[in-house]
From TrEMBL:
Lineage of producing organism: Bacteria, Pseudomonadati, Pseudomonadota, Alphaproteobacteria, Sphingomonadales
Origin species: Sphingomonas oligophenolica
Pfam families in the cross-refs: AMP-binding, AMP-binding_C
Record protein name field: acetate--CoA ligase
EC number annotated for this UniProt entry: 6.2.1.1
AMP-dependent synthetase/ligase domain: residues covered: 76-449
Domain AMP-binding enzyme C-terminal: start-end pairs: 499-577
Xref: PANTHER family: ACETYL-COENZYME A SYNTHETASE (PTHR24095), ACETYL-COENZYME A SYNTHETASE 1 (PTHR24095:SF14)
Keyword hit for Acetylation: yes
Top EC category: ligase
Entry's Gene Ontology molecular function annotations: acetate-CoA ligase activity
Gene3D superfamilies to which the protein is assigned, alphabetical: 3.30.300.30, N-terminal domain of ligase-like
Length: 602
C-alpha cells in the first residue's frame, strides 16, 4: 500500500478518536498580560519575522563571518555585559560555582589557546566524554572559538558506543575523566590513529594523557577567536539507528541563528531570566538549549550535576529562583508519579514559563502542570536533524493540550503523502500524513558524516521528510501521531501509539504508557500496552481490567489495547524517549539492536 493510500485509511480513523480530547473546553487560554509580555506577538509575527530578521539579532563578525562562541560569550563582554552571571553550577556534593560572562570568556580563551598550542586548529574534532561539569561547557565553547568541531558524548556510554562515535567522527582530541579514559577509551585507543591528545580533567600521571588543569595553568590566556564562516562545520551530534550504526549529524555555525531566535521566541527568554535546561549536553537538546541558546540570549543558566531526583529538582527550582524551565516529558511523568503534594511544599512562584521536549507531551501532563504549577508545560517539536525547535506552543498562544503547537515564523511545515518520488500536500484538516519541512533553515543538518546516500534519502520533492506522522487542525496547530515505523496496522486501521498512550494516561492510576503492535492471525496486529503507575498505586488484576475498560470506552473495541501489562519501569533512552522498539523486540523475541542509549532496563 502506498503512503497516500495508508493516509486515506488512517485519516478516517484519527479524525474521530482524537476529537473529544481536543475539545475547546480543554484549551488553556492565555491572558492579555501573558500575550503582552511574550517575546513573540504571534498574531503578526509571520508577516514581520523570518531568518533575515533573526540574523540581524546577532552581531556576526567582519567579512560575513559567524562564530557560535562569539555570539554566546564574547559579544556580551564587548557590549559591557561581562559582569552578568552566565553559569551557575550545582555539584552533586552541594558545592556551587558561579561564572560571569567575563569569566567564561577568560576560561574559553585559554582553552582555545591550549588547543592551538597542541596543534588543533580549524576543523579539529574535539570530543567530550564528561558529565555536567564546568569543564564540559568551557571545552564546547573553547573548541568553537578555535574553529574546531565539538562533539559531545553522553557520560554514561559504555566503551563500544564511545568507540563507535569517535571512530566515525575521526576524533582528534578527547576531554574526559581519568576513570572514563581507563575504562572506556584506553583499551582501544591505539586503534584510532586520529586521536592525538586526551585531556584529563581530574587527574595526572596517566600515561599518554594530559593533565588539563595543570596544563591550562601554564597556558597563555589571550586568544584571537577564529573567524569561521557560517557554513563551517561546528557541531557533530550522533543519533542512534534502531539496528544500524550511529549517524553523525553535521551542524554549522549558522545554526546559532536558529538557536538564538528559538531561545527568544519559543522559550521566551528575557535577559533577566534564570534558566534551567535539564538535558545533558551529551544530547542535542543539552547543547542547543543547555549551552548555546541561553548564552546567546544573555541569561543566567543553572546546571545541575546530579541525576534526576524529584525532591532535589523542586529544591533547585525554589532556591535558585528559576524563571524558565525546559525539561523532558519523562521527567514530567516522574514528577507526576511522585505526587502533587511534593510540589506543594515548595515556593515555585518565580516560574513563569515551562517547556518540554524529547518526545510528545501527553495532554494529561499539560493539564496536570496547569493544576499543580498554575501554568502549563508548552510542548514543542524538533529533531537532532533540525538542530533547533521548529514547531512550538508559544508563550503568546493558547495551548491545546497534546498539540505540538505552530511553526516558528520562517519555518514552512506541511503534512504530506509520499508515493515513490512524488510528494503531495495534505490540505484537509486532521488528516494523517508525514510531517515535512521546507529545507533551508539555518540549523538544518548539512549531512550525515560519511553517509551521503543516507542523507539524500531524507529529501524528496523539495521537502525534508521527518519520518513522523502528524496532523494539522483548522487553526494551524500540529498534532503528533507517531513515528512512521511505530504505527500499528490492525484490521485496516492505522493506529498511532501516541493516541492510545494518551488515553491510558487519562486514567488516574497511570503515570506512563507505551504501546506496540503484536501479531494476530485475524487482525494482522493488535495493540498491547505497557503502563507504570503513579506513586502509591498498587498493581492488581482489578486495576488491569479497569484500564482495559477505560481504553475500550474511550477508543472503541477495534483500537483499544487487547492486552495491558503493568510494569515498575519502562525502557527509555537517556534523553527520555520510551523505546517502543525494544519493548517490541523483547515481546516478539527479535534482535534488540543498538542499546547504547538505553537508560532503564525493564
Amino acid at each position: 500500500m502506498s503512503d497516500r493510500a495508508k493516509t486515506a485509511v488512517a485519516s478516517a480513523r484519527f479524525g474521530m478518536g482524537l476529537e473529544e480530547s481536543r475539545a475547546a473546553s480543554r484549551t488553556i487560554r492565555k491572558s492579555a498580560a501573558d500575550r503582552a509580555a511574550a517575546n513573540l506577538p504571534h498574531e503578526t509575527a509571520r508577516l514581520t519575522l523570518g531568518w533575515e530578521v533573526y540574523r540581524r539579532w546577532l552581531d556576526g563578525l567582519p567579512g560575513g563571518c559567524l562564530n557560535i562562541a562569539h555570539e554566546a560569550i564574547d559579544r556580551h563582554v564587548a557590549h559591557g555585559r561581562g559582569g552578568r552571571e552566565a553559569l551557575r553550577w550545582l555539584a552533586k556534593t552541594g558545592d556551587r560555582r558561579s561564572y560571569s560572562y567575563a569569566d567564561l570568556k577568560a576560561h574559553t580563551d585559554r582553552f582555545a589557546r591550549l588547543l592551538s598550542d597542541l596543534g588543533h586548529g580549524r576543523g579539529a574534532r574535539v570530543f567530550a566524554l564528561l558529565g555536567r561539569v564546568p569543564e564540559l561547557y568551557v571545552a564546547a565553547l573553547g573548541a568553537l572559538k578555535a574553529g574546531g568541531v565539538f562533539s559531545p558524548l553522553y557520560s554514561a556510554f559504555g566503551p563500544e558506543p564511545v568507540r563507535a562515535r569517535m571512530t566515525i567522527g575521526e576524533a582528534d582530541i578527547l576531554i574526559t575523566t581519568a576513570a572514563d579514559y581507563a575504562k572506556k577509551v584506553a583499551p582501544w585507543r591505539a586503534e584510532l590513529p586520529s586521536l592525538r591528545h586526551v585531556l584529563i580533567v581530574d587527574g595526572a600521571g596517566i600515561d599518554g594523557t594530559i593533565d588539563l588543569a595543570a596544563t591550562l595553568a601554564l597556558t597563555e590566556p589571550a586568544f584571537e577567536l577564529v573567524a569561521t564562516r557560517p557554513e563551517d562545520m561546528a557541531l557533530l551530534h550522533f543519533t542512534s539507528g534502531t539496528t544500524g550504526r550511529p549517524k553523525g549529524a553535521i551542524h554549522v555555525h549558522e545554526a546559532v541563528v536558529a538557536h538564538h531566535a528559538t531561545g527568544r521566541l519559543v522559550l521566551d527568554l528575557h535577559d533577566d531570566d534564570i534558566f534551567w535546561c535539564t538535558a545533558d549536553p551529551g544530547w542535542v537538546t543539552g547543547t542547543s538549549y543547555g549551552i548555546i541558546a541561553p548564552l546567546t540570549n544573555g541569561v543566567t543558566m543553572v546546571i545541575d550535576e546530579a541525576d534526576f531526583d524529584a525532591e532535589r529538582w523542586y529544591e533547585i527550582l525554589e532556591r535558585e529562583r528559576v524563571t524558565v524551565w525546559y525539561t523532558a516529558p519523562t521527567a514530567i511523568r516522574l514528577l507526576i508519579k511522585a505526587g502533587a503534594e511534593l510540589a506543594g511544599r515548595h515556593d515555585l512562584s518565580r516560574l513563569r514559563f515551562m517547556a518540554s521536549v524529547g518526545e510528545p507531551l501527553n495532554a494529561e501532563a499539560v493539564l496536570w502542570s496547569q493544576d499543580v504549577f498554575g501554568r502549563p508545560f508548552h510542548d514543542n517539536w524538533w529533531q537532532t536533524e533540525t538542530g533547533g525547535i521548529m514547531i512550538a506552543n508559544f508563550a503568546a498562544l493558547d495551548v491545546k493540550p497534546g498539540s505540538m503547537g505552530k511553526p516558528l515564523p520562517g519555518v514552512e511545515a506541511a503534512i504530506v503523502t509520499v508515493d515513490g518520488e512524488e510528494v503531495a500536500l495534505v490540505e484537509t484538516p486532521m488528516t494523517v500524513g508525514q510531517l515535512a519541512l521546507r529545507p533551508g533553515w539555518p540549523a538544518m543538518f548539512r549531512g550525515y558524516l560519511h553517509e551521503e546516500a543516507r542523507y539524500a534519502a531524507c529529501f524528496k520533492g523539495g521537502w525534508y521528510l521527518t519520518g513522523d506522522l502528524a496532523m494539522r487542525d483548522a487553526d494551524g496547530y500540529y498534532w503528533f501521531v507517531g513515528r512512521a515505523d511505530d504505527v500499528i496496522k490492525s484490521s485496516g486501521h492505522l493506529i498511532g501509539p501516541f493516541e492510545v498512550e494518551s488515553v491510558l494516561m487519562e486514567h488516574a492510576a497511570v503515570a506512563e504508557a507505551a504501546v506496540i503492535g503484536v501479531p494476530d492471525e485475524r487482525a494482522g496486529e493488535v495493540v498491547k500496552a505497557f503502563v507504570t503507575l503513579k506513586h502509591g498505586v498498587e498493581p492488581s488484576e482489578t486495576l488491569r481490567k479497569d484500564l482495559l475498560g477505560h481504553a475500550r470506552k474511550r477508543l472503541g473495541a477495534a483500537i483499544a489495547p487487547r492486552q495491558i501489562e503493568i510494569r515498575p519501569e519502562l525502557p527509555r533512552t537517556r534523553s527520555g524517549k520510551i523505546m517502543r522498539r525494544l519493548l517490541r523486540a523483547r515481546e516478539l523475541g527479535l534482535p534488540e539492536g543498538d542499546l547504547s542509549t538505553l537508560e532503564t532496563v525493564a
